[in-house]
Amino acid sequence: MPLPACCGEPFGAGTKQCSTCGHQVTDAGLRTCIRFEARSDAMLAILRRAEAIAKACAPVVLLGETGTGKEVLARALHHAGPRAAHPFVPVNCGAIPSELLESELFGHVRGSFSGAVADKPGLFEAASGGTLLLDEVADLPAPLQVKLLRVLQNGEIRRVGSNRSLDVDVRVMAATHKDLGALVEAGLFRADLYYRIKVLSVRLPALRERAEDILPLARHFLDSEHSPPHRLAPASEEFLVRYRWPGNIRELSNAMRCASTLAEGPMIEPHHLPEEIVRATSTTRGGPFRTLAQVEQEHVLTVLRACRGVQADAARVLGIGRNTLWRKLRTYGRVPLRDGDLAIPAAPLLEHGGGEPSPREEPN
Ligand SMILES: Nc1ncnc2c1ncn2[C@@H]1O[C@H](COP(=O)(O)OP(=O)(O)OP(=O)(O)O)[C@@H](O)[C@H]1O
Ligand SMILES: [Mg+2]
Question: What CATH number matches the domain at 207-283, 2.40.50.140, 2.60.40.2250, 1.10.8.60, 1.10.357.10?
Answer without folding.
Answer: 1.10.8.60
